[in-house]
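Dataset card, provenance and construction

Sequences and ligand SMILES were collected as paired inputs. For each pair, a complete structure of the chain with the small molecule in place was predicted and serialized as structure tokens. The example below shows a pair involving zinc ion. Curators did not alter the output after generation; any descriptive sentences attached to a record were derived from the structure itself.
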Amino acid sequence: MRTLPLVVAVLFLGVACNPKQEVDMLVFNANVYTVNDDFPKACCFAVDNGKIIEVAENADLFEKYTSKILRDVKGRTVIPGIIDAHCHFYRLGLNQQVVDLVGTQSYEEVLERVVSFQKENPSNFIQGRGWDQNDWEVKEFPTKAELDELFPNTPVALRRVDGHALLVNQKALDLAGIDGTTRVPGGEIVKKEGKITGVLVDGPMKLIADVMPKPDRQTQIRALKEAEAICFDHGLTTVDDAGLDREIIELIDSLQHVGELRIRVYAMVSNTPSNLEYYLEQGILKTDRLNVRSVKVYGDGALGSRGAALKAPYSDKPGHFGAMVTPVSEIGALAERIAATDYQMNTHAIGDSANVVVLRAYEKVLADKPDRRWRVEHAQIITGNDFDYFESGVIPSVQPTHATSDMYWAGLRLGQQRMWGAYAFKTLLTRAGTVALGTDFPVEKVSPFLTFYAAVDRQDLNNYPEGGFQRKDALSREETLKGITLWAAFSNFEEEEKGSIAAGKHADFVVLSHDIMTVAVDSIPYIAAEQVYVGGEKVK
Ligand SMILES: [Zn+2]
């Protein structure tokens, strides 16, 4: 009889004293750009169980919550965890496992780096990447003589910076069965006075790739972890890997499950028969850190090597149109097959011809299927009325640093008229209402601050060209910030769980060294991600 009033009294007391809620972390004294719809700013937020539970404009939060971890960021700028909407995360990691030859000043330096790498990481097939004879005093292709002397019994394969040439030694040639009589279409086995020099261009490189050892499990794991460390260092908390096989997707999932990998991954499935058969049957695979619900398809090649498929011939190569990598009919068939599932189709399209082929295929199968958010990866050259296609919900997934990397020669390939719709990010945004921004690393550098700078300023680091490259297509800072956070999340069907600092979302955020929205534009490339959090956990 007497217990009931006691319980009521205790309850009442509880309310009256208004005890503070204990949470995992309070972040305060911050200049927070929340990236919520009306773009409000905040000073503080509370984090619990990996999620943001409340965001406030003033310090009232302290009256409601208490925490053992009080994170005073001393007025620094805080933005949502950065998402790279198009990159090659695993490939970045694999690149760390081979000899780095980027920036070598001579062939002697290449050899030195190979020798010392092999000493520290002995391998029975030496691989390297990044040499560029244009940086050397003697601007000629190297020959294999020195490599044969240094490594008579170990195969060596060193990739040129653009990935379109390979220097190999005799042992590698022997393994691949390449000799003076070998003929491979679509490339060259370079010879000097009738003898093989060791340089292979394009086509024949495949013969070497076929005999290279596949990375073993330890190497795969090391690659993923090293890529993660690089990404965290730059403030990335989610990466959209544009093309992974089932084996690596499953490895990522298992590493995430045991806490060995903490970065969130949006894994686009590579378009192979076995991948598609498995995943389209399986349906969407989603955990807190992994999302598998899209297929990556290659439409055409790249502009630099004149592989991009154009409607009219290249301006600097009469009669040459580039080519589709996946035939037009196959793209249509794939679109139909994927549209019948819940999967998203993300197709690489650089040239205006490839873009319209892809956009038409999308339009045909999505007519009565709203909100499928299919993406065009790169959407680099659009001509005629083809921008109209983006008004139907197709998302352009673009890489601003491609504009400032290609601007020196893109006009030669395309001519002035076609340039109007090239790297036209603002035009795409105006039509589509959203753009997802990325880098395509390791083709470009990992830093999202370079993306930000290229998007808003459209100049290189030397302020070239004056006034910016096709300035009409620069994005505002607000648009760019959304492009690397909320809109990238939207392109992944993840805007309910990430992409802004809001109650209920993952506590993924970055503390910056400078205010990215107000700092002088020339300082943007040098902004640092000082602290990085994934699910409330400090990862940098
Ligand atoms: Zn890519």
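Derived descriptions for this record:
Residues 315 and 416 are 9 Å apart (CA to CA).
The pocket of zinc ion is lined by residues 86, 88, 242, 440 (CB under 6 Å).
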